[in-house]
Amino acid sequence: MTTIKALEQAVQQLPTQDLAEFRQWFVKFDEVAWDAQIEADAAAGKLDALAAEARTEYSNGKAREL
Fold it and tell me: Whole domain around residue 47: which residue ranges?
């Protein structure tokens, strides 16, 4: 059995309250992982083209402030 399958089975067997606590924990865990990935991508220049495109569209009046 793979680790993923074992985790899936374990999560499926959690009591309702434990599942709710796990969900809250996982959301926070996922947010931290997402933020770290975005920061790494930005530092590596992977977002530069997207930022340049957004600035160009804004300068050309194709975007608006929110």
Answer: 15-59
Quick: pLDDT tens for 6-44.
Answer: 999 999 999 999 999 999 999 999 999 999 999 999 999
From residue 63, alpha-carbon distances to 5, 42, 46, 56 in Å are: 45, 22, 22, 9
CA dihedral (21, 22, 27, 31) in degrees, to 10, reads 110
**Residue for token pair 């599942």:** 19
Please count the structural domains in the chain.
1
Give 30's Cβ-side CA count (13 Å radius).
Answer: 6
